[in-house]
């Protein structure tokens, strides 16, 4: 039995605008460390997977960039989405490609843009999830113990008693969408709720059976794609079928409905780096709470995140702000509202100023 890792690299990263642009979205940026987020995602899998068992799902407009950043990945392991359709079609596409190679394979799914620290504990969690998923029809997720009441994450509620230990494994009671602050505080206090990491482990047939049950139209489209893999018709069928698929998330369409979900407790350092605020929280600051990248001068500023490339950023008497300069755009926002940067991007689109995104 083989196991395959799938890196989902099709997002647009609009909450990291203006650094994240349509031609180079967040997952291809070097925001922490010396490697881009997708390169770091790939690097931390190599102890568990040879390169020929790592697949990357990427949009057609970013294929060349993905190849450039991951030169050791076999070309046939880049799976190209002609159009973004959220995570259910994306994961289904990877599943049929894996099943074509090995119908008994176990499949592990990873977002391309997360920060993970503590690789030993991370690998222990994956090994535990593989043990359960490879010998059953369970769909396994990694849940992260929350360190704060964050409203930017979805949550997973577990049952009271673990069914396995080292690290603990629980049956899942329910998935919860992003809560308000009071609800998030209650979740953290209860000790039963985990951040939804977006990391999943399952047999390839198990997830495809669930897609057939809950998303029959998607399943029928995936079967058409699977039947044409490796043929002269593959590209045409792929483009035709994928454009007609419903855009829907795997969480909403499958995981929230199934009663065969397990959670492995993740005790490693994790953040999905979903916004400038999240990056600020994970970055080292000075005694005034300032996080600065680039040329900066300031007087009487506290608790700000400043990120510049080509110009001097000068600030006077400001607090709790994010100030980002990238190319032809300067972003200034309250640090508590960085999740809403995507709404600014939408306004830019509506005002037909696409050259800024």
How many domains make up the 3D coordinates?
2
Assembly form of the protein:
single chain
Strand content: 15-25%
Strand sequence of the main sheet, in spatial order? 6-9-7-8-10
Unreliable stretches (pLDDT < 50, length at least 5) are none
Q: What does this entry show, briefly?
A:
This protein is α/β, with parallel strands linked by helices and 357 residues long.
Question: Your description of this structure?
Answer:
- Helices cover 31% and strands 25% of the residues.
- The chain has helices spanning 37-43, 63-69, 87-101, 119-133, 181-190, 204-214, 216-227, 234-243, 250-255, 276-281, 341-350, and strands at 3-8, 54-59, 78-81, 106-111, 115-117, 139-144, 155-158, 169-176, 193-203, 261-266, 269-271, 291-293, 296-299, 305-307, 313-316, 321-326, 329-334.
- The protein starts with a strand and ends in a 7-residue tail after the last helix.
- Helix 6 (204-214) crosses helix 7 (216-227) and helix 7 (216-227) packs antiparallel against helix 8.
- Helix 2 (63-69) links the parallel strand 2 and strand 3 (78-81).
- The model has no long low-confidence stretch (mean pLDDT 95).
- It has eleven helices and 17 strands.
- The relative contact order is 0.15.
- It has a five-stranded mixed barrel with strand order 6-9-7-8-10. The protein has a four-stranded mixed beta sheet with strand order 12-14-16-17. It has a two-stranded antiparallel sheet with strand order 5-11.
- By secondary structure, it is α/β, with parallel strands linked by helices.
- It folds into two domains: 3-274, Spore Coat Polysaccharide Biosynthesis Protein SpsA, Chain A (Alpha-Beta Complex); 282-356, no CATH class.
